[in-house]
Specification:
7-stranded mixed β-sheet; single chain; alpha/beta
């Protein structure tokens, strides 16, 4: 039986990542290594550090990744793409040219008789008012139209610069370490959500750039997928067991 794979947060093309070409090749090699084992692949957001489609123009680069995704969908493998907070601005190219199934919102779905709640994770439980305002602006159709009125040369520069600044304002450009069960927003959101959705078996998120596998109840389990910048981690579900794994050039390490 084939398996289902989950990964997120590659931030391809980031100006804050020195090894971005090597990083993209590594991701593509991983996708190639699972193409005969995968029934479906869920990309849970921020696969690009900044992605914005214009009517006749898409961002430069990413040809290895986009080509591999297209190959997978041509083989009949479902590739689900969730927008994150860095790649909101998709208007048809990924679906029409690469064959992905695009998700703009969290998804509750059944996989091998188990119920999954899948989301990038931004905006879920985070009380930061500045982030909420920025997220509202980014998702505004009016603001998106106004931004796309800027020439791509300057629009892409603004977007890539913003994305780099977003990462570098953190200490050493690194994510805040795991803050504990009582302080992690995604955990707090999930516990509250579980009160009215007792049927969910797995909650899987990206966004936080930490690798976390947490049992919340006798039924529910929460997983945060890490990233594909330094950790190269992913989850795989074979119908009976869910594993968090690390990709190490040609092999998987539990």
């Amino acid at each position: 039986m084939k398996s289902v794979y989950f990964l997120s947060d590659a931030h391809l093309g980031s100006w804050a990542i020195d090894h971005r070409r090597t990083q993209e090749r590594r991701l593509v090699r991983f996708l190639d290594s699972i193409k005969n084992k995968a029934m479906a692949i869920y990309l849970l957001g921020d696969m690009f550090d900044f992605w914005n489609e214009y009517k006749y123009v898409v961002p430069k680069g990413y040809t290895r990744f986009l080509g591999k995704i297209s190959e997978l969908t041509d083989m009949g493998i479902e590739v689900h793409y969730f927008i994150g907070n860095h790649d909101i601005w998709t208007y048809g190219y990924l679906e029409e040219e690469c064959g992905v199934i695009l998700h703009h919102k969290p998804l509750t779905t059944e996989i091998f008789d188990k119920v999954f709640y899948l989301a990038h994770g931004d905006g879920l439980g985070d009380p930061d008012t500045n982030f909420k305002l920025l997220r509202k602006i980014f998702h505004s159709p009016t603001c998106q139209v106004l931004f796309n009125s800027i020439h791509p040369r300057w629009g892409m520069w603004l977007g890539m610069s913003w994305a780099k600044h977003s990462r570098m304002k953190r200490i050493d450009g690194k994510e805040v370490p795991y803050m504990g069960e009582d302080k992690e927003y995604l955990i707090q959101f999930t516990k509250e959500y579980m009160k009215t959705h007792e049927d969910v078996d797995y909650f899987i998120y990206g966004h936080r750039h930490i690798e976390l596998d947490l049992v919340l109840s006798r039924k529910a389990r929460l997983m945060i997928l890490g990233d594909w910048i330094t950790q190269f981690t992913y989850a795989v579900f074979d119908g009976e067991h869910m594993f968090m794994e690390e990709y190490i050039e040609g092999e998987s390490k539990p």
